Amino acid sequence: MKKILRQYGLLIILSVLTMALYPFLPDRASNISRISVQYLIEVLSILPPVCILLGLLDTWVPRKIVEKTLGKGSGVKGAGIAILAGTAAAGPLYVAFPIAVSLLNKGAGVFNVVIFLCSWSAIKIPMLMFESRFLGLSFAGLRVALTIPSAIATGFIMDRILHPGAK
Amino acid sequence: MFSFIICIIAIGCLILSALKSREKTMLSLQISWKTFKNVLPFILTIIIVIGFLLTFVPGPVITNIIGKKAGFLGVIIAAIFGSILLVPHFIAAPLGGSLLRQGASITSIAAFITTLVMVGIVTAPMESKFMGKKFTLWRNLLSFGFALLIALIMGSVLK
User: Fold this and answer.
1) Which residues 78-107 in chain A show a CB within 8 A of chain B?
2) Does residue B26 sit in the same domain as residue B74?
3) At what angle are helices A93-105 and B124-131 packed, to 10 degrees?
4) Residues B82 and B13 occupy one common structural domain
5) Helix (H, G, I), strand (E, B) or coil at A52
6) Is a pLDDT exceeding 90 seen at residue B14?
7) Are residues B73 and B48 in the same domain?
8) Does residue B2 sit at the A interface (CB-CB below 8 Å)?
9) What pLDDT shows up at residue A65?
10) Cα distance between residue B116 and residue A131, in whole Å
11) Is B38 in the same domain as B67?
12) Are B118 and B147 in the same domain?
């Protein structure tokens, strides 16, 4: 009960507020309802398929194999796998930290791990579909196209910073 | 139309997955359901917040803060908000879309989204616990810089 209240508290307050506004500012109140319903339809039409795709990607891209390959792979191949691995997984960035640590322990380079973290947080195929719906396909596409080189550059710079002396 | 295509893709992948392995499909559906359940309250809340935002905050106010007129300062403001806030992408996209409609500049919204996904000040203590202080500091600093760069490029390409 407490959890529900915490999760939906603001929603309930704002809904009640909207209702309360009707007698005083009918135009504004109906405007709020109209916009909210419009967004609700848009979100509900795309959220379920996006969640299904997130789940499917998460189970079908085997994490064990990714960890094994990333541990050894380096250079272009390693970077490619790091991007794919980050892209496929579901969950927020803080879920990725323990995985990143285990990758480092298994011998993956800083370069790969940074790229993995960057793509985990910034690029998710189902999320991109969601983003395209609201911000446009060119927005989402360009963002990804620019994020990949930045992730690689970040990985490269951090590799140099954290391992001074190594070639 | 767009949602329809994505629905078809999702259903197609689901059938393919079920044909290959029923167990894995059940497992992934459990993950899907968990994700859905977790983001739903946030999304419903942000939807009504957007309703309020578009109704009560006049377009000129948004244009002045993060619009074209605000220039680089507006972009920095958006980037700082994006770095601090910890909101799922599921919320950022509709919010960004509604702000764009109200006159925010593409550069600002791009800065907001890119910093939101790449920089995490709230998660930094957790990140440094796992990855170390130096790693966390540099990853976030570099990501902030690249996020700004990405936003500036996006703003000049997408008009």
Assistant:
1) 90, 92-94, 97-98, 100-101
2) no
3) 10
4) no
5) helix
6) yes
7) no
8) yes
9) 67
10) 13
11) no
12) yes
A131/B38 Cα distance (integer angstroms): 18
- The mean pLDDT value for B1-23 works out to 90
CA distance A155 to A57: 24
B11 in contact with chain A, both atoms CB, cutoff 8 A: yes
Q: Do B65 and B132 share a structural domain? A: yes
Asked if B87 is an interface residue toward chain A (Cβ–Cβ < 8 A), one would say no
What residue numbers bound the domain in which B6 lies? 1-56
| Per-residue pLDDT at A138 | 95
pLDDT in tens, B79-128: 999 998 877 788 889 999 999 988 899 999 999 999 999 998 888 988 99
Mean pLDDT in residue range A44-52: 89
CA atoms of B128 and B41, how far apart (whole Å):
29
Please, are residues A79 and A155 in contact by the beta-carbon 8 Å criterion? Answer: yes
Higher pLDDT, B8 or B59: B8
- Judge if B64 and B50 occupy the same domain: no
Q: Name which of A31, A139, A142, A147 to mutate to probe chain B: the one with the most chain B Cβ atoms within 10 A of its Cβ.
A: A139
Query: Do B116 and B143 have their domain in common?
Result: yes
| ipTM entry | 0.85
Smallest Cα–Cα separation from B51: which of A31, A160, A115, A148?
Answer: A31
Integer Cα distance of A56 and A72 in angstroms = 26
The reported pLDDT for the residue numbered B111 is 96
Domains held by chain B: number? 2
> What pLDDT is recorded for position A71?
63
Which chain B residues are Cβ-neighbours of A150 within 8 angstroms? Answer: 143, 146-147, 149-150
Question: What is the spatial distance between Cα B93 and Cα A138, in angstroms, rounded to a whole number?
Answer: 14
